[in-house]
């Protein structure tokens, strides 16, 4: 249908099913507001249409872009239905892309975590013999690395501590029999029952020891502080020259009555850093 602004005489082409009699229209040329009357004859259109409430675009005779005239109602908004459909499609596509990206990211993270947690099992499943070979090589390398560190003057005894109870003490000296300087000698101590089953084990750096008075009077935390003192380790267990001796002591607190034997093993030693 053709609608003419009674104020400036500009004509607009409106879809018949979108505008009904009595609807107020506003001319975008002059801003005049007037009620629609369907008794106007169809005439050529010389401008374009804008719609506020209806979800469609008015189609002028020569151009498909809506501008010029607007339909007045209680709700004032302008929607281009084709553009709205395209926006909806774009939003759906964007949401789908985001979902796919998030999903793939989560899957990759889960695979990474699973790989990290179950790497040994996966490796042993894919390469069933590699673990044994690697273990043998590591054991041989370790034996070669520590073979000339000897443990001497080893003795064990029980001490009654007033705060803790009974202590099982092992002490001795680690001797560097290499022909070069070594440091940070590390030892593993174990206590076992009469069947050879290990009850408890400890790993520690040599270099510290406690007096009998300290063993009898100190609390567990205080005693552990003495036996793991960094000062003692730096003083006695660094730059150990060939033939040098490093004291060590380890304490097991309130050991079970079935302790029958103990074991000591050197598990690591390092070369001092080279001077620049």
Automatic annotation (TrEMBL):
<keyword id="KW-0472">Membrane</keyword>
<dbReference type="Pfam" id="PF11906">
    <property type="entry name" value="DUF3426"/>
</dbReference>
<feature type="transmembrane region" description="Helical">
    <location>
        <begin position="98"/>
        <end position="119"/>
    </location>
</feature>
<feature type="domain" description="Zinc finger/thioredoxin putative">
    <location>
        <begin position="1"/>
        <end position="35"/>
    </location>
</feature>
<keyword id="KW-0812">Transmembrane</keyword>
<dbReference type="Pfam" id="PF13717">
    <property type="entry name" value="Zn_ribbon_4"/>
</dbReference>
<keyword id="KW-1133">Transmembrane helix</keyword>
<protein>
    <submittedName>
        <fullName>MJ0042 family finger-like domain-containing protein</fullName>
    </submittedName>
</protein>
<dbReference type="InterPro" id="IPR021834">
    <property type="entry name" value="DUF3426"/>
</dbReference>
<dbReference type="InterPro" id="IPR011723">
    <property type="entry name" value="Znf/thioredoxin_put"/>
</dbReference>
């Amino acid at each position: 249908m053709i609608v003419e602004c009674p104020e400036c005489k500009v004509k607009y082409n409106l879809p018949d099913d979108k505008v009904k009699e009595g609807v107020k229209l506003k001319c975008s040329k002059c801003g005049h507001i007037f009620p629609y009357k369907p008794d106007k004859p169809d005439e050529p259109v010389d401008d374009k249409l804008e719609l506020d409430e209806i979800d469609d675009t008015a189609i002028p005779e020569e151009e498909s872009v809506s501008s010029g005239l607007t339909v007045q109602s209680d709700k004032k908004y302008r929607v281009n239905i084709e553009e709205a459909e395209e926006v909806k499609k774009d939003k759906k596509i964007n949401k789908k892309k985001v979902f796919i990206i998030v999903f793939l990211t989560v899957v990759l993270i889960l695979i990474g975590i699973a790989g990290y947690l179950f790497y040994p099992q996966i490796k042993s499943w894919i390469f069933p013999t590699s673990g044994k070979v690697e273990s043998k090589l590591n054991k041989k390398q370790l034996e070669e690395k520590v073979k000339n560190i000897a443990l001497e003057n080893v003795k064990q005894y029980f001490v009654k501590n007033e705060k803790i109870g009974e202590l099982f003490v092992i002490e001795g000296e680690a001797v560097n029999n290499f022909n070069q300087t070594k440091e940070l000698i590390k030892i593993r101590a174990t206590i076992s029952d009469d069947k050879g089953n290990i009850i408890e084990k400890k790993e520690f750096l040599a270099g510290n020891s406690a007096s009998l008075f300290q063993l009898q009077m100190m609390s567990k935390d205080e005693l552990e502080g003495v036996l793991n003192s960094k000062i003692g380790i730096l003083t006695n267990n660094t730059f150990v020259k060939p033939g040098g001796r490093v004291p060590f002591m380890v304490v097991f607190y309130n050991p079970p009555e079935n302790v029958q034997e103990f074991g000591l093993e050197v598990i690591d030693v390092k070369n001092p850093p080279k001077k620049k």
